[in-house]
Amino acid sequence: MAIEKKRPRGLKGSAAQKAAKKTKTEETPESSVPENAQTVVLGKVVEEGDEVGEAAALYESAIEKMENSPSEARALLRGTIHESDRILRNWDATKTMPLEFYFTYGSALFELGRLTEDEEFDPYLEAAEERLEDGLAHYETLENKDDSTAMMNCIKVSLAKVWLSKAASEVDQGSDVIPELAKRALETLEEVVPLASLSNATKVELASIVQNHGDLYTEWDSRTKFTNWAEKLLEEVLADSPSHSKALSEIGLCKLSLANYWLDQVNEDNDDEEEEEEEKSERTEEENKAFEAFGESKKYLEKAHANLKMMEQLEPHHSTDLAEACLNQANLMLEEKERTDLYKQAIEYIREAKEVASKSDQDYELPDALESFLEEWEE
User: How far is it, in rounded angstroms, from Cα 216 to Cα 175?
Assistant: First the structure.
């Protein structure tokens, strides 16, 4: 390959584009509620006849499937909602509905909306918000609130997720104005997350949602209100579990998004001055910040990649995230040899992504910019 090939500029794939979208999942054939749903429930500790507990167990099973088996998670979430509908229709009005019911019902609606890409998200958000707010209203009627405080905090966390998702549609491109709903969501999370007994997996998912919302803003102050909070929560997870692959991956994406932010601040005139770019002996302040952030991103993504590869849980996007970081950092490298070495690393990760997808029979397509770079490299 001729080293003089034009550098790919402004590559922004995973971190920059996911902010304005619902969670992406690999589409696989949809199934109905699995026949072994009752078996799944029985795998949890549920008292006999506890219908609310059974619905909650279905929801917990769905969350466990979210990362690696989204189609199974969708089926279990639909089963959770179906059971919750049935419980609500048949509930004895003289008995008090457990708070767990509202949390389970509302959270399942929210998560199913995020996973169902061929349907509008808004109806799921509205239904989830209604059920969760019903739960808070129910909490206020309880005589003994102390026993239900933990579940109330969980409801508030889920409600904050809904508010952030609804607020996303109110963010104007290029504006630094934070919608009131997003402010309320972040204030709620700041209040209840330290009090809630959240699992590390829940914290990572929550941090990802908050980070994605922050990515919607172009102004530094607005953006960092959310991204700093998300990064801090991820650091708490890593302090407790240093090898947590999902947390390592998410904080790597946080750094990747930050690097892309600084790239956006670089004078766009440089894009058309290739000869001057080749002769540069130093980076601008913004380029230095981007360069450092790409390096930090690689550090975390490489750790996640190594863990996942060892556990045979590597997905194509884990490799393409790293390829993106390598490629963009290479564009900012002043020394030709180091730049070429990073390009070679990017190529290895791109090829690995294609291989992983092929072995798992996934209908996976590389991001256009990575596909173009691979084609140029192989010419």
Answer: 9
Cβ 307 vs Cβ 248: under 8 Å: yes
Q: What is the pLDDT of residue 92?
A: 87
What confidence score (pLDDT) does residue 96 get? 85
Coil, helix or strand at residue 214 = helix
Residues 6+ apart with CB under 8 A from 30: 71, 74, 75
Contacts of 259 (CB under 8 A, 6+ apart): 289, 290, 291, 293, 294, 297, 325, 328, 329
Closest by CA to 28, choosing from 62, 74, 80, 81, is 74
pTM: 0.85
SS3 category, 136: helix
Place of tokens 């918000």: 129
Q: How many Cα atoms sit within 13 Å of 169 on the Cβ side?
A: 9
* Cα gap 244→307, rounded to integer Å: 9
* Per-residue pLDDT, 338: 94
Short-list 151, 121, 142, CA closest to 56: 151
Low-confidence stretches of the chain (pLDDT < 70) are: 1-48, 174, 267-279
| Structural domains present in the chain | 1-18+203-267+284-379 (1.25.40)
CB neighbours of 355 closer than 8 A, spacing ≥ 6? none
- Measure the CA–CA gap between 133 and 160, rounded to whole angstroms: 11
Query: How far does CA 88 lie from the centroid of its chain?
Result: 31
Distances in whole angstroms, Cα of residue 23 to Cα of each of 27, 121, 183, 324, 374: 12, 11, 22, 19, 27
Q: Do 150 and 135 form a contact (C-beta atoms < 8 A)?
A: no
Give pLDDT, residue 268.
53
pLDDT for 42: 42
Contacts of 323 (CB under 8 A, 6+ apart): 345, 346, 347, 349, 350, 353, 370
